[in-house]
Fold:
Amino acid sequence: MACSEQSSEPVIAQQGGSESPAGVTNNVAQAGANIAMDIYKSPTCGCCGKWVEHGEQQGFSLTTHHPADLNKLKAEHGIAPEYQSCHTIVSAEGFVFEGHIPARYIREFLMAPPADARGLAVPGMPVGSPGMEMGDRFMPYQVLLLKRDGSAEVFAEVSTSTQQYR
Structure:
């Protein structure tokens, strides 16, 4: 899925946030320290750029990459088409976070990842999710837990816009 909103971002990789160790551990997540991750997106996707701002405001240190074939990267990380969105984040441990997931749920996941987990996903681009803000508009959505066997289950239900930031 691609974002149609244009961004003025350059095509080269950007280093975001403050410097932090490349490793992400449960202790780091629990301590609330910066969590370093890589985000893969189209250089022209404005909503992805807005998600990067959200992530950095929530304490993530993000390095942006613009791969030539984003769909190939998603497939290599086991993200089935039905769970895809416009950007993919990969943690130091190899967990994937697909789409406009509120940072609070990524942090919660990293504090206690299930043994069989691949990561989290918010399929599509729900209106009102981080990076997809459109005034007061909000569409309830689910954050899915992606499992290594290719299945998924609900990790969180997001019913209100304020719930994303608790």
User: Anything to note?
Assistant: Confidence is low (pLDDT under 50) at residues 4-32. The radius of gyration is 15 Å.
